[in-house]
Amino acid sequence: MKKEWLLPISLALVLAAAGLVGCNSESPVPGELNINNQQEGIWVSGQGTVTVTPDIATLRLGIEVQAESVAAAQSQATEAMDEVMDALADNGVADEDIQTQYFSIRQVTDWDRDKEEEVVTGYRVTNTLAVKIREVDKTGTIIDAVAAAGGDLTRIDSIGFSVDDPSDYYQEAREEAMTDARTKAEQLAELAGAELVKATYISESSLSTPSIYRQGMYDYEEGAAAVETSISPGEMEISLSVQVAYAIQY
After folding, report:
1. 88 domain residue, yes or no
2. Domain containing 112: what range?
3. Which of 2, 18, 63, 106 has its C-alpha lying 20 to 30 A from 38's C-alpha?
4. In 39-50, which positions are buried (b, 16+ CB within 10 angstroms) versus exposed (e)?
5. Is 210 in a helix, a strand, or coil?
6. Which residues make Cβ contacts (< 8 Å) with residue 64, sequence separation at least 6?
């Protein structure tokens, strides 16, 4: 009895397998991904670049103190940093635009030739902030105020410029990049005797120039004549590229 059932079941399995093979040989259903056709058509890249004037300045500044004891160094550093924070507030810098970037208390050592060993000669406290200045024109004034507040303990390591909201600039760069890609594809299609149909693949990558940082150290000498610091934000570029695949027909 079992053998009589085996033959119909085997036949049904063979027919089902044949049906699957037949389905695979047909053209793909619209909307399905056909991996074999990924490289068909014309592939081009396009670039778009927009030159903008930065509207944000970021200062990396801080206080550095060296004293014979940790307590003395920390006390001086705290007092000087309080003065710096007051100067920032007086010049319109909001609390949320001030962020501690680095804080350390380290031993200062020297080599004792008589004892032939390293000895501790003091302690150094470093407290560094990242300060975002939204009124770029006031950057020089704020630098001067901070330097005066912190005196000889002031350290200004770098200044950077960026754009607070680059969305509109990215949109402009994106339009330029797609136009560039389309122009290239149309030329290639014409040279190949073909006609563009539609874009079948689009990929975007950002090439935006990062914030411009200018390294350096601002030295301030108490009692020196006041000198106004001149700061120029210049310009920066926001760029992106696209890779586009176009279907073609002859």
Report:
1. yes
2. 55-164
3. 18
4. eebbbbebebbb
5. coil
6. 77, 124, 125, 126, 127, 153, 155
User: How many distinct structural domains can be found in the chain?
Assistant: 1
d(CA 162, CA 53): 8
Domain CATH number, residue 74: 3.30.70.2970
The three-class DSSP label of residue 22 is helix
Collapse the DSSP code of 143 into the 3-class scheme (helix H, G, I; strand E, B; otherwise coil) and give the result. Answer: helix
For tokens 């560094």, the residue is: 128
Q: 23 pLDDT exceeds 90?
A: no
Q: Residue 119 domain-assigned? A: yes
**Residues 64-94: tens digit of each pLDDT:** 999 999 999 999 999 999 999 999 999 999 9
pTM of the model: 0.69
Q: Which pair of structure tokens corresponds to residue 202?
A: 């689009």
Contact 58, 164 (CB under 8 A): no
pLDDT by residue (tens digit) across 94-142? 999 999 999 999 999 988 888 778 889 999 999 999 999 999 999 999 9
Does residue 101 fall inside a structural domain?
Answer: yes
Tell whether 35 is covered by a domain: no
